[in-house]
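hey all, quick one before standup. I had two proteins in the batch that finished overnight and I want to keep them in one place so we stop losing track of which output belongs to which input. First protein below, input sequence then structure tokens straight from the run.
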Amino acid sequence: MLNSLLQHEFWLSLEYLPLAEQIGATWLFPLVNSLHVLSICFMLGALLMLDLRIAGLSATRYSIPQLEHDFLALIWMAFILAVLTGSALFITRASAHILNPAFQMKILLMLIAGINMALFHWFSRAGRHSRFVAASGLLSLLLWCGVMLAGRWMGHII
């Protein structure tokens, strides 16, 4: 019980940070929210192109390393911006978000997407262009769609 209370106090304390109060009570909230959505759009647009190629469903005349070269920097920059803006949005209602099943699912799916990406890189760097490599592209798309859906559901699940 005490541990649960301390954890709740921690998440609640994030909401009282000056930055969280400034974002939550001003025009910064819709700006940060808009930047969050735009960064996700850029990330997923570039990831879609790469994942469809990895899965062998599109752009097969281009090599995977060529498309990685073209898209990975954009994917990472957009992902970092999405994490920063998402964190800024999170701290405005941290104690509620942390208990939200949709938020929990979003974080879990992002973690699985990260593991999928690490496994893809391990298999592809080892020269193992197996069915796993192709399947990882499709799995990545499914996982990121799940992240997006969970993010949208956060405001509708208590």
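OK second protein, same deal, sequence then tokens:
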Amino acid sequence: MTRVEKSILIILLIVASLLPPILFYFYSHIPTVSPGKAAELLKEKPKSTLLLDVRKKREFELIHVYSSLNISAEALLNKKISNDQMAVFQGKTVLILCESGLHSIAVTRKLRNNHINAFNIEGGLHAWIAHMGKPSAGLTSLITSPEEKEFLFYRVAPSHEQWLAVLTGYGIKPLYTILSFILIILLWKKDEIELVALKYSMIFFFLGENFCAVNYLFFKHESYLFEYLHSLGMVICFGFVTYALFHGVDKYVIHYSDQSKKCAFLGLCAQCFKYEAVSCVLIKIFIFISLATSVISLMPLFAELKMISYNTEIWRTLYNYSHPVIYQIFEVRYCPIIAGLAFASAGLILLTKKDDPLPLAKIVFAAGCGSAGFSFFRFILFHGYQDNLVWMEFWEEITEFIFIGGVAFLLWQFRGTLFGRT
């Protein structure tokens, strides 16, 4: 791989990593209030404060905040604000609420452009429920429709689920985080490409999990930035570990890149580019896999975004389980697109690049595996356990523990070869 190719690849990876927070910052850069502050304003200044719910009518009827006015975002954005609506908004502090705090951004911006004192409620109904705590009366309470009486924004967690939450959060998570740090130390001075890639995968995993811990300990899981850094750490980790696996299998098993050794598939292919003027079957297979995965990786892209948020108590401590839409947008919208582009690019590199295309193609394909792997990981967990998120968190922590334990197990089993021991 040439220096120019390396530079372009690094720039693309940096841009892909920075693009989501930059876009979110510029899109959401408007005056906001927290749900707690909004509830306080509604209580202290009910006559001069208006809570405007901009969800669709059916969504509003299923569940809404007491005393809120419903005008859909579509009605406000697609049409000029009517004189009747202006009369309702004029002279009041208008607090805009939607499901996730995203649709309300555009509405808030439009109202402020019409000289209305509007503020977006951060996190939308997701965050509003989290700030409510236990069921209570008053302006902050929720109203549900008769057919949705089973909907509860507060749920009593069984004792075994409380134990599982504590075990995974305070036992398993610190354990595999420490183990990943130990692996970083063991791999620190290794210069073999596969071990260097594995080292960086552990570094980004360790950083991502610590961003998650900081978000929980200091921000009550409400910091979008720290959750993004947590997710980004997992994406990059999956990419590096995939590249380490590719390079290791090639080096120790297949021997495709080593011109002095026979390829492991020679018996199956019956002819090899190393000895004859023929095209490599493995490259053709890799091209097919790249193009196929570029399509398959788009599967989560068509999943429905869902609002899930409810409160419970874990050992008498109030805890909110939610998976905000802003997280889902990154997981099942952004990551599949990046993965699809990376897989397709890997295939095109193999098809068009004449001079040793495999090294660059492996890196690009591994980057696609990082995005696709994280996307499918969260997609499966969330849609499998959306009705009870304690199990989503439980299986996420267990899977990550098995992942780090598996890396440690393989390094131990092959320590003689990988670490140069007899």
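Flagging for whoever picks this up: Strands lie at 32-33, 49-53, 63-65, 69-70, 93-97, 118-121, 142-144, 309-314, 317-322. The chain has a mean pLDDT of 91.
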